Amino acid sequence: MNCIQWRTDGSDPFPSWRDREDYLDRYGARAVLWVGDIRSVHNWGWSPAALCVALRGRLLAGNRGCAVEVGSNDVLVTEAGNGLRLEPTGSGETRVAMLWLPPPTARSRAQDPLPAFFADDAELAVALGRLIHAAQEPGGSMHLCLDLVLNLLAHRQLTLADTLRNCPGRSDRHRRQLYSRLLRAKNLIDHGQAVPLDLAALAEVASLSPSHFLRLFHRVFGASPHRYLVQQRMLRAHRMVVETAVPIGTIAQRLGFINRCAFARLFKQQFGLPATRLRRQASAHLRLGAPRLLQTLGSPSRVAYSPVSNAA
User: Which residues are in the HTH araC/xylS-type domain (predicted)?
Assistant: First the structure.
């Protein structure tokens, strides 16, 4: 696969295309690399699969109903199809790199990558940085850097293979389509904003009926969507309690818990300690210069699935 760097002609700072056929007419089987600043919301009505990384600042990337915040060293793999939305978050300028991958053709028999979010993946982010540098240097080895990025991406995609096998389907293509839909909802739970997410909302993101989504999610990931949602938010709560100074009430609110008392009860149930006591013990260990001991404080491995009606 070859790669070209998109350069503005002065009329439009963003690459654009109408649909799959328009992309192939313009670029063929070549990837398109774009680096630029996002100062306001920008939308693509159709987009091939792409790798997105924030070089400076943070951005909210929305794709197929799943919106996640991308920060330093985070790499988002978007799903091919209708809709891609980029929006800067916070103050300051947001600089973004996008690597659009060409749509597969019948002749190539390639497959679009599955949607994924690789949090704090320095190896893949650095490989993308090398590709950007090679594109800007005369005689840069873009093809070698692109091969490295694609090899790393293929290796990351293998981590999804085990759960993909659990997904039913009439054919391999149908199985991947269903799995991609489930991954939209899972990625939203794992990395999306902490907004209330009920079964109907998650099923809508996956473009499935609530009953069908519930059965498929449990079959593929081994837990109901609600139990998985609670588990992931409690793990995030544990990290925030131990690693930050954010007030406990604010943590509960950010993670979508309307009732702080319910959050406190569930936190103690899952980790064996109230959040305030866990934070005090974590701070004491840090002062003693023993950060490894934090692993023994309310270990996240104790998280159990537990329904909480007002958690989301």
Answer: 183-281
